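Re: the 240-residue chain
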Amino acid sequence: MGRLGLGLKMRPLPFIPAISEISGADAREIPGLEAVVSYWTQGAFSSEEWYEEVTDAWGTAGLVMKRGDEVMGFAVYGPHAYLPRADLYPVGPLGSDAALLAYLEGDPRARRHLLVRVARDLKTRGFGGVEAIGSDLGLSRHIPTRFLLENGWEPLRRGFRLGLPYTLARADFGNTVEIGERARGLMGRVKLPVLGGAPSPVTLSPQGPGGARMSPSRRSSGASSGRDDRRLDDGGTPGA
């Protein structure tokens, strides 16, 4: 029986991490995703409802990185109309040719991989860039501004909400997207294909799908609820 006959155990081979699209069917199985979707939609959707509706109307709006069954990180992005909390930050206007990256979860390496895959997806769909509202203090449910700038994003505008600083940052899509490989002390470059005839980004009304969930009155009530917003913004712990 060779070495196995000596009672030695074979070590299982590690799974190679894989990145896949988030669907409504598996949204609830991703730890932390429900809280992020609820925050950026101001409680208008559950994660399952949001992904079913946005995917049907707009296309892929999230990616998850897994090693086997272990979730290593995820990305949430989409059109501004489906992420109404973005309207509460005084850093606009948001670009009409860009999607909004709301959040990245995972360690720095996982987030960099997800950042590149988000850019690749949006570029091939005809978007001119991707934007994010970063937290200068690294508050929860936000991408730290420092992480975005270290990975080649450009700061556009800075503003304060409830006394806390935020920065609107953007990555334009050219022939390459630069990502910071801080762990290895160098700047990596991930080449993206230049595709012809890509579909134009879908334009949605500011009220979202049919005006049912994202009505102006709903968003106005969220903007005027200073007590709830302060709890959400000030109560976050540092870090992503």
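The chain has a mean pLDDT of 77.
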